[in-house]
Amino acid sequence: MYERKPMIAGNWKMNLSLKEAAELIKTIRNGIGGVEGVDVLVAPPFTHLGRVREAIGDSGIFMAGQNMHWDVSGAYTGEISGRMLQEATCTHVILGHSERRILFGETSEQVDLKVKAATFLGLIPIVCVGETLEQREADQTFEVIRTQLDLSLNNFKADELMRPSTILAYEPVWAIGTGRTATPAQAQEVHRFIRGWIEENFNTGSAAQVRVLYGGSVKPENIADLMSQPDIDGALVGGASLKGDSFVQIIRYKEGQSG
Ligand code: PEP
């Protein structure tokens, strides 16, 4: 069976001063010494990327943008391009986060354009999908996730190619920032569905290799149970990634890594 390397990713959203960001990286660096077999990533605000890169130094922590435009340059006031993220030394970019979809009206069609542009540039997209509480209660979870995947990854489908480095994140909207986490079984069920979708639309190789992260009120207390599920390959962490100690504890979720 193919072993997917777990990833713990911190989405800082619109938080932290430059100084706080540099201090947070220092705490993470100090805390993850000796940890092996886990990829660590942070997604700082755009203005913090340079300073955070300096603080990351040679620690191997990956850095992502929180969003990007699909065009390379142009008259798009307030936007940032994938090439700019690359110049700022980002290797990844979060796309289609529910806050972008809900608060800023981003559509799956736009996410698809962004995924295509990011992939063309060699930036690894972390593509988020997830249902609202209303949709879950109306038994529409799988239908919603399938539609989001179909539309947000439409260009992959057209090319019949999904790069194994692509990362997906299942983030139930009702669990984000609410303190309410999906149970490991609830999350696993959707992660399994997502992997099935990859297999159906691409091939077993991609399905085996693409990492699917869970996001939604992940904290030190629930990470190990979530990670024990076969199709959960890591976590996209919001609130708990802003505190060095809790983020480090999440990264060190495996037994034997607490020394
Ligand atoms: C997120 O916004 O991606 C997220 C999962 O946030 P939180 O961990 O705070 O629920």
Keywords:
259 residues, alpha/beta, TIM Barrel, eight-stranded parallel barrel, 12 helices, 8 strands, globular, binds phosphoenolpyruvate
Quick recap:
The model has no long low-confidence stretch (mean pLDDT 96).
Overall 3D form: globular
**Parts with pLDDT < 50 across at least 5 consecutive residues:** none
What compounds are bound to the protein?
Answer: phosphoenolpyruvate
What is the fold named in CATH at topology level?
TIM Barrel
What is the fourth-level CATH superfamily?
Aldolase class I
Describe the strand arrangement of the main beta sheet, using strand numbers: 1-2-3-4-5-6-7-8
- What is the architecture at the second tier of CATH? Alpha-Beta Barrel
Report the biggest beta sheet as strand number plus sense, adding barrel if it closes. Answer: 8 strands, parallel, barrel
Q: How many structural domains can be distinguished in the coordinates? A: 1
Total helical segments: 12
The tally of beta strands, per DSSP, is 8
**What share of residues are in beta strands?**
5-15%
- Oligomeric state: single chain
Summed over residues and divided by their number, the pLDDT gives a mean of: 96
CATH class: Alpha Beta
Q: What letter string, H or E per element, gives the SSE order?
A: EHEHEHEHHEHHHEHHEHEH
What's the helical proportion of residues? 40-55%
Please provide a written account of the structure.
There is one protein chain. The chain is α/β, with parallel strands linked by helices. It has one domain: Alpha-Beta Barrel (TIM Barrel), CATH 3.20.20.70. The chain contains 12 helices and 8 strands. The chain has helices at residues 18-31, 49-56, 82-87, 98-103, 108-121, 133-137, 141-152, 154-159, 184-201, 204-209, 223-227, 244-251; strands spanning 7-11, 39-43, 62-65, 92-95, 124-129, 167-170, 211-215, 234-237. The chain has an 8-stranded parallel barrel, surrounded by 5 helices. Helix 7 packs across helix 9. The longest helix has 18 residues, at 184-201. The chain is globular and about 45 Å long. Phosphoenolpyruvate (PEP) binds at residues 11, 171, 176-177, 215-218, 236-240.
